[in-house]
Amino acid sequence: MQPTSRAFALAAVAFIATALADSPPADLAQRQELKRTDLSGAPGMEVITSVTELHKGETLPRHSHHGIESGYVLQGTMVQLPGEAPKMMPTGAAIQNLRDVPHAGFTVVGEVPLKLLSVHVVDKGKPLYEWTH
Fold first, then answer.
1. Half-sphere exposure of 110 (CA within 13 A, CB side)
2. What are the tens digits of pLDDT across the range 40-99?
3. Is the CATH number of domain 28-131 2.60.120.10?
4. In what helix (H) or strand (E) does residue 119 lie, and over which residues does it extend?
5. Distance between CA 5 and CA 24 in Å, rounded?
6. How many CB atoms lie under 10 A from the CB of residue 120?
7. Nearest to 2 by CA among 17, 15, 10, 14
8. Beta-strand runs (E) in 7-90
9. Domain locations in the chain?
10. Using the 8-state DSSP alphabet, how is residue 33 labeled?
11. Nearest to residue 60, comparing CAs of 47, 45, 44, 71?
């Protein structure tokens, strides 16, 4: 390989690696899927049950879903949205997010991890998360 070709190839690899590092993940590494099943009587829909655990300094990026999310805070902690004061997300709080409505975008700032149980009723075959800004 000639020096200019090698330099071009290295530059292309560096560009792709940077682009991938800056793009949000397809899923959350902190999410543990417990069960996934088709929604009976609703072709093209599925139900996904998960537990997500976020530690101090970790962010749940702003996102939406292709369906409804219902959840429960298993272990609460302090969270902070950009430009706002920290607030408590209490243990026992219920969560509901409607189809295609952006939500989250907070960082855990409390000393204990945030643990969420989520049930998504979503379009089958579509990504669980649509990242927004």
1. 18
2. 999 999 999 999 999 999 999 999 999 999 999 999 999 999 999 999 999 999 999 999
3. yes
4. strand 114-123
5. 30
6. 20
7. 10
8. 31-38, 45-54, 59-60, 63-64, 67-75, 77-80, 87-89
9. 28-131
10. E
11. 71
Residue 116 in contact with residue 79, Cβ under 8 Å? no
Q: Which residue has the tokens 């390989």?
A: 1
Say whether pTM exceeds 0.85: no
Structure tokens that stand for 56 in this block = 């101090």
Q: State the chain's mean pLDDT as an integer.
A: 87
Look up residue 111 and give its DSSP letter: S
Residue 30, by phi and psi: left (phi above 0), alpha (psi -120 to 50) or beta? alpha
Cα angle, residue 55 at apex, residues 54 and 57 outer, rounded to 5°: 110
Q: Which residue do the tokens 């997500």 mark?
A: 52
Pair of tokens at residue 46: 């599925």
Instruction: Give residue for tokens 């000639």.
Output: 2
